[in-house]
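Subject: Protein record for review, amino acid sequence with backbone structure tokens
How to read it: Take the token row as a discrete description of the fold.
Enclosed: The protein record, placed directly beneath this head.
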Amino acid sequence: QVQLEESGGGLVQPGGSLRLSCTVTGSILSIGRVGWYRQAPGKQRELVADITSGGRGIYADSVKGRFTISRDNARNTVYLQMNSLKFEDTAVYFCNAIIVPISGTIANSWGQGTEVTVSS
């Protein structure tokens, strides 16, 4: 089965940094657009950053200048470098990707999330 797995979350102080990873495993041909989303308690899920198959990153206004999305196609991995973290960045972060499997229909898949807590 094709799966997405996020990692890298944890507890960090304000102003600190974390690097999240999203790795796709399974029998796939390619990975298209990949997005990082987050959901804070009591709030709806929101798009944080998105990267095209060509490597162009797009960011929510709230994280511009602080977060950087990148991808390593050889490793089937997308990263989210998070710098200058703020209290309001606390959320569960999810990876979403368009995946072309070896067999089957192109899918828009989600990981199970990784927790980021920014606290002093």
